[in-house]
């Protein structure tokens, strides 16, 4: 059996319009206009010259880079996900789904509290976050 011989419900034949037959004079295409002609089609977004719905929607301002300079993780997130004594590296953060790209730098910021002693490797840390981590008994390498 070949692929073209498979019978699938979604393989419904498209109605071929404009070729005479039992559909009558205009074959279901109406009388005149672009859509009645062979090869004539209109962009689905086109609304006859007026402003389209897409043009009326508000634009997203600014720019988001595909390659961010740094990815941010908060202390409260480290508190929730890691146990005391765990080593936190960019690879581990990627595995846990906290960052999206291992090539971009990772920065730990001071939002929230941390009570567990976690060890950080290859991560940038803000001054306030560094104080809190060291106060909890963690190390930064």
Q: In DSSP terms, counting alpha (H) and pi (I) runs of 4 or more, how many helices?
A: 4
Structural category is alpha/beta
CATH architecture tag of the domain at 70-140: Ribosomal Protein L15, Chain: K, domain 2
Q: What's the pLDDT, averaged over the residues? A: 87
Main pleated sheet: 3 strands, parallel
Low-confidence parts lasting 5 or more residues at pLDDT below 50? Answer: none
Strand order of the largest sheet: 1-3-5
Note the gap between the termini. Answer: 62 Å
Question: How much β-strand is present in the residues?
Answer: 5-15%
Radius of gyration: 30 Å
The multimeric state of the shown protein is single chain
Q: Remind me, CATH topology of the domain at 70-140? A: Ribosomal Protein L15, Chain: K, domain 2
Level-1 CATH class name of the domain at 70-140: Alpha Beta
Helix content: 10-25%
Q: Please count the beta strands (DSSP E, at least 2 residues each).
A: 6
Order of helices and strands, N to C? HEHEHEEEHE
What does this molecule look like?
This protein starts with 52 loop residues before the first helix and ends with a strand. The chain has four helices and six strands. It is elongated and about 85 Å long. The strands form two sheets. A three-stranded parallel β-sheet has the order 1-3-5. The protein has a three-stranded parallel β-sheet with strand order 2-4-6. With 141 residues, it is of the alpha/beta class. Helices cover 19% and strands 13% of the residues. The chain has a domain at 70-140: Ribosomal Protein L15, Chain: K, domain 2. The longest helix has 9 residues, at 127-135. It has helices at 53-56, 75-81, 90-96, 127-135; strands at 70-74, 87-88, 105-109, 119-120, 124-125, 139-140.
């Amino acid at each position: 059996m070949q692929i073209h011989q498979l019978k699938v419900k979604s393989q419904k034949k498209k109605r071929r319009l404009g070729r005479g037959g039992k559909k009558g004079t205009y074959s279901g295409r109406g009388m005149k206009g672009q859509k009645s002609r062979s090869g004539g089609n209109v962009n689905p977004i086109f609304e006859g010259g007026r402003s389209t719905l897409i043009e009326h929607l508000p634009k997203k301002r600014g720019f988001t880079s595909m390659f961010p300079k740094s990815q941010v993780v908060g202390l409260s997130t480290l508190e929730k996900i890691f146990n005391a004594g765990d080593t936190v590296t960019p690879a581990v953060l990627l595995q846990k789904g906290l960052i999206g790209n291992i090539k971009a730098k990772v920065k730990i910021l001071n939002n929230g509290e941390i009570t567990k002693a976690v060890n950080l490797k290859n991560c940038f840390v803000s001054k306030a976050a560094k104080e809190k981590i060291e106060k909890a008994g963690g190390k930064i390498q």
